[in-house]
Amino acid sequence: MTSDERTYDRRRLRQWLAGTARAEGIERRDLLRLLAAAGVTAATAGALARTTPAAAAAPVGPATAAGIVKPLPADRFTVHGTNAETRWQALRGTGYHTPTDLFFVRNHTVTPALDAADWRLRVWGDGLRHGRTTEFTLADLRALPATERSAAVECAGNGRSFFQRQQGETVSGTAWSLGAIGVARWRGVRLAEVLRRAGLTRHAVDVQPRGLDDPFVSGGIDLGRVRRPLPIAKALDDVLLVYEMNGAPLPPDHGHPVRLLVPSWIGIASIKWLGDIEVSTTPLYSPWNTDLYRLFGPGHPAEGSAPLTRQTLKSAFELPWDAPLALGRPHLLTGRSWSGGRGVRTVRVSVNGGADWHPATLHDPPRAGGWTRWSLRWTPRTAGPTALLARATDLDGTTQPDRTPYNSQGYLFDAVVRHPVTVG
Ligand SMILES: Nc1nc2c(c(=O)[nH]1)N[C@H]1C(S)=C(S)[C@@H](COP(=O)(O)O)O[C@H]1N2
Ligand SMILES: [Mo]
């Protein structure tokens, strides 16, 4: 996180407390309570359970998840409540982009059934000329200049289960392994273009996209529809309103007919089933940038860190957990590493629990907002259990650490994961 974002967030918080920023749809008293509770109760996982929409992990999920439309075969997905993560072994040999039918799904509630023919995007707010409201149909958006790009969508909690498994720390939230990421080819229109046509003024500071899925109720509190403000600088930079994924219309589970794509940022920024975007001259708040998606815990202020933006650095092997590997046979270990920074520069792999390290062969150049595939040949000479580890370094010079500092909601895990296999 840059110091600019931190400064901006402090200003936003001060303005909000002074009553000059708005948290639309939330009672001021509720938000204060949420902010206070998040800071004060950060140490007790039980009290934080209210921020945990989905059930804990089951090692093998059923073939369906409540509210997800696409099939979720158990050899390709692990289901966690209303969410489903991709099994890494299913990605082996699939190419750079995650096939749409393998792409993870993270739903706060259920995938809504929306008809593209009567869908409208409403752009509104006092940051627009004369405070006017503009509506766009899907045909309107398709008529604007199109942009295509590859980008990852990755949940801020991807890797969360390793806080428990590797560090013995209890955190709240969906117990993802490493499969809450996918990289797709997205096509759509720049948000900057749409905001310009809606009459953006230079007084706008925040834009807040909001989904059309059901309001999210957590711990008995109705938090309203899923929404999270973006600073105008990011909104005008590389954000897209996308209507195609991997060359086909956006499917229901991934935001049909139109979602936001916020490259390099945590998944929650990429609001699905977009219904409206508020453009505001005062800073905006929602539960998704106040008590959720900040770091809480020792070393963080009571109101949490600044809202999370960029993703961290991670690596994964395209192998099942506890994979059996034949002794004395050559194996091609494959995997991927990715970063919210400028792309992955090197990956080193250990096949003996971290004692020795070997450079992996990289199959993609560093790609900001995407991942790099890699491989390493290995002929195991010793029978028994061992751990495979992969450690990436990105172009910013960041290297995956051995341990991720604790935060109570288990966001941004970036430590090297120990992947158990058995040679026999
Ligand atoms: N409207 C809406 N947008 C949403 C969500 C949601 O539940 N509702 N989940 C967010 C989260 S937390 C993530 S990680 C991504 C997941 O995108 P995917 O389901 O297409 O993989 O969508 C984000 N956008
Ligand atoms: Mo997420």
Please characterize this protein's 3D structure.
The chain is an alpha+beta fold and 424 residues long. The chain is built from 6 helices and 23 strands. It has a 5-stranded mixed sheet with strand order 4-3-14-7-10. Strands 5, 6, 11, 12 and 13 form a 5-stranded antiparallel sheet that branches. The chain has a 5-stranded mixed sheet with strand order 16-23-22-18-19, with no helix packed on it. Residues 33-61 have low confidence and may be disordered. The protein binds ligand MTE and molybdenum atom (MO). Ligand MTE binds at residues 103-108, 153, 155, 211, 213, 226, 254, 267-268, 270-273.
Strand content: 25-35%
How many strands?
23
Main pleated-sheet profile: 5 strands, mixed
Instruction: Report the C-alpha radius of gyration, rounded.
Output: 21 Å
Structural class: alpha+beta
> What ligand species are in this complex?
the ligand Nc1nc2c(c(=O)[nH]1)N[C@H]1C(S)=C(S)[C@@H](COP(=O)(O)O)O[C@H]1N2, molybdenum atom
Q: What's the SSE pattern?
A: HHEEEEHEHEHEEEEHEEEEEEEEEEEEE
Helix proportion of residues, in percent? 10-25%
Q: Report the mean per-residue pLDDT as an integer.
A: 89
How many helix segments? 6
Q: What separation lies between the terminal Cα atoms?
A: 45 Å
Shape: globular
Strand order of the largest sheet: 4-3-14-7-10
Low-confidence stretches: 33-61
